[in-house]
Write a structure and sequence with these properties.
Layout: E1 17-22, E2 37-38, E3 41-42, H1 43-51, E4 59-65, H2 71-79, E5 83-87, H3 92-102, E6 110-115, H4 123-136, E7 140-142, E8 156-159, H5 160-169, H6 173-177, H7 181-185, E9 191-193, H8 210-223, H9 230-238, H10 254-265
Parallel strand pairs: 1-4, 1-6, 4-5, 7-9
Antiparallel strand pairs: 2-3, 6-8, 7-8
Helix pairs in contact: 3-5
Length: 266
């Protein structure tokens, strides 16, 4: 049974759960991908609508850059009734920190990190990771660094105190751009991966390339709605194996791997 919204730890202290979904429009591999239209809606709106179905998230905020190039994205999301925070383009860790600061979050408040290239995200999987984080009493929990689900269902959960420490100590480009590497790798935090048997973790359901988008568009057009589960998607793919040929040659976490190389080159 899922815990109630505004979760209370054993100490009795109420905590907020805030989902920060980061996105911008100047992706080098597929520019404006979050604005690409599926079933008459931009991809990012589908993802926000799916995420909003979470039973444990108290507030959902899109985090984008303060660059003029992201004005269209910010206006679109605001006009669809979702909250937006704008901050540093390349230092996404700073963007997260300032967004949390603007919301006056407490050390124990929980932050869920999501990315805007995951239009098939499943609210039940998000809630699963939030609940696991609280039960584990750790500083950080993810379902993706020992992959449990397909690429595109990634969830990272940590508290605001952990975010603050990372912001004040992280220096590498990869740590600033990808938010959580310092948390995972510094040795200062109790870090855990979701303990669950993997569920088709070899599949790719994220959008970085045009071929990724073609697959996601096919999936949405099959269901003709925004609300369907990961299990529904797996059933569809198992019965339509040719769909998997769209994007099965792309490397998982390609952007992060590129950032690590840039760390080493500097």
């Amino acid at each position: 049974m899922l815990m109630k919204i505004s979760i209370i730890r054993q100490s009795g202290k109420k905590m907020k759960v805030i989902a920060f979904l980061q996105a911008r429009t100047d992706s080098t591999r597929l520019p404006k991908k979050v604005l690409k239209v599926i079933l008459d809606k931009p991809m990012i709106i589908h993802q926000l609508m799916r995420t909003k179905k979470s039973k444990l998230i108290d507030e959902l905020v899109l985090l984008t850059s303060n660059e003029k190039s992201d004005d269209e994205l910010a206006n679109l999301v605001t006009n669809n009734g979702f909250k937006v925070f704008r901050g540093d383009k390349d230092n996404v860790l700073k963007r997260f920190y300032h967004s949390a600061e603007s919301m006056c979050l407490n050390d124990d408040d929980i932050i869920v990190r999501l990315t805007g290239d995951c239009p098939l995200h499943d609210a039940k999987i998000i809630d699963e990771s939030i609940e696991a984080f609280i039960n584990a009493n750790c500083d950080y929990l993810a379902n993706c660094f020992v992959p449990v689900y397909p690429d595109g269902l990634d969830v990272e959960v940590f508290n605001c105190k952990t975010l603050n420490i990372a912001y004040n100590n992280a220096t590498k480009k990869s740590q600033l751009e990808h938010v959580t590497p310092y948390i995972r790798e510094s040795g200062q935090f109790l870090v855990k991966n979701l303990e669950k048997v993997e569920f088709f973790s070899n599949l790719r359901l994220t959008v970085d390339e045009e071929s990724d988008f073609f697959l996601i568009k096919e999936i949405y057009e099959h269901f003709q709605k925004t609300d369907f589960s990961l299990s529904d998607v797996i059933f569809l793919l198992n019965n339509n194996q040719t769909l998997l040929n769209f994007n099965n040659k792309i490397t998982r976490n390609e952007g992060y791997i590129k950032s690590l190389k840039e760390d080493n080159d500097n």
